[in-house]
Amino acid sequence: MLELLGTIGGNIIGLPGILGVALGMMTRRLWLGAMMGGLIGIVGTLLFAHWDFANVATTELLIAIVVGLCAGTLGSAIRIKGATV
């Protein structure tokens, strides 16, 4: 359980979370922000696994993608809400 929570927390404050929000804030389309965040989740996981799928656990990749999707969508929502103020 602690390993799962650590993986989720590490992805939120790591590359998929922060870069996902940053890339999501570059667009006003929610789907595009989510797609860019998910792509960052995949690339970040593979980057730390030295570009080898054999070194990537399925749960780590899945959590990174989900966190990236959520972060990208959040970034787009921030951009949309900030533009209407």
TrEMBL record:
Q: Give a yes or no for keyword Transmembrane helix in this entry.
A: yes
Recall the taxonomic lineage recorded for the source organism: Bacteria, Pseudomonadati, Pseudomonadota, Alphaproteobacteria, Rhodobacterales
Q: What keywords sit in the KW lines?
A: Membrane, Transmembrane, Transmembrane helix
The protein depicted here goes by the name Uncharacterized protein
- Its transmembrane ranges are 6-23, 30-49, 61-80
